[in-house]
Amino acid sequence: MEALAKKLGLRTNPTIFFTSAGIMILFLVVLLIAPGPIGEAFGAGREWIVTNLGWFFIFGVTSWVAFLLWVALSRFGAIRLGGNDAKPAYSNISWFTMLFAGGIGTVLMFWGVAEPISHFSSPPRPNVEPYSVEAADDAMSFAIYHLGLHTWAIFTMPGLAFAYFIYRYDLPMRFSSVFYPLIGDRIYGPLGKTLDVFAILGTLFGVAVSIGLGTQQINAGLTELFGIPDAVITKVLIIAILTAVAVGSIVAGLDSGVKRLSNINIGMAVGLMVFVLFTGSTVFLLRAVVETFGLYISNLLPMAFWNDTLASYTGDDGGWGWQGSWTVFYWAWTVTWSPFIGIFVARISRGRTIREFVLGVLFAPSIFTLIWFAIFGWSAMQIDGIGPEAREALGEQAGVLSQAVGESVPLAMFAFFENFPGATLIQGLAVVIVAIFFATSSDSASLVVDMLCTGSPDPGPWQQSVFWGVSEGMLAAMLIVLAGDAGLTALQEVITVVDLPMFILVFTMMFALFRGLAQEKLSEVRVGSPPRPEQL
Prior knowledge:
By secondary structure, this protein is an all-alpha fold. It contains 22 helices and no strands. It has helices spanning 2-7, 14-33, 35-73, 92-101, 105-121, 133-147, 149-168, 180-183, 190-226, 232-252, 254-279, 282-305, 322-325, 327-336, 338-347, 354-384, 388-394, 400-407, 412-417, 423-454, 462-483, 487-518. Helix 9 (190-226) packs across helix 14, helix 10 packs across helix 20 (423-454) and helix 14 packs across helix 22. The chain is globular and about 70 Å long. 53% of the residues are buried.
């Protein structure tokens, strides 16, 4: 394999690169040959995992939030990620825009209207009347729970572990480095390489799901604007075009490509949010933003431990009901591509203290997410009608967005903008924002996967990253083809099954990081010098 890598002009670990590429290509071939049986297998696997291990996902992510806050507020929070004199490489604004755009920008565009409206029309908790004030409060609480602190804890956990072991111990920028306190020098052997390969495959699948969601929404927007058919071939063409854009950004590099795209995209997204705020019911929304903070804070603890335990007694099939399709899916999907975001955030966070890192990555995007959902979610529910009197006054217009979400989740945002001035222009802008988020996620992931292969923060030859960028597009396209009309359901099945081993590994990171931090009291541990195995 080393000879082949030299012949192709690659600068990477041949075992990790070719094994990952080979398994991914094999999976694509199997998808093409037998999409039906593969889809059925993933469906059965997802049902078993959700029914028997859903509680583990809920408990695991909540424990990460608690652990990260403890680390940040403890004496370990003053540890600098890098040399003691290291300075942050990026300003706070650029740092935030890059981690956010590479994280869940596409998700907010996809679910900003659809999730609150879904919970508003079909409340998660039993005995809550749809379209009521209580249903509206619950809808906002659950939407922000899914995409607030808990989601960013899933990114922060591996991100902090990567940054700590890579910058404090001077270990390779690989997934296996995080487990140094547990397996020692075996991170350089077959065990370590197996972990690295698994992280690369998990990242590819996780990003493929994100690309799949973004593609569905772009197609829905183009259908609304230009009447372009909502079909599999259209989605495949969208993936091909935007993958080409992402490849161009990859060639430009992290500072020129990814940073520029991130800054532009966040600026456009903020502009869209401000537009909704000031062209909608401004005073109502400002009051709602403040109130939503209170809703989130008061409901966070109960939601964090809610396991839908009584679902089997309320008539839901399988004993999990609503939460299996929402919370468990969110955690499974997010954890699958958490190594990508973790490495990416670690790469752009050298020089920051652990306290800066944890509080910044946890709270800055979570606050933005809360404001985003408060503005878009409350606006959407107001349009649908909150309470019987409002719905009666709206007449036939009551529930228009709920109907749109029921027909097509990707169409929800575009149906929402029909209620604002300059609807066509704003819908077009929304398509552009989703497309750029798509490209940013793809090029960020490609650069990170290349880092996982090379073990270096500096990217290898451009053809390596381009290969991974094209691979992500192909994998997303094949998942779309496999999914057919039941696109989102099929993507959920794939990602839940792929995630379980990754979830266990990220859960283990918590213990590895704690053990590593405990060594900081040893005088022998210096920056760039890991403790000897016998000290662990």
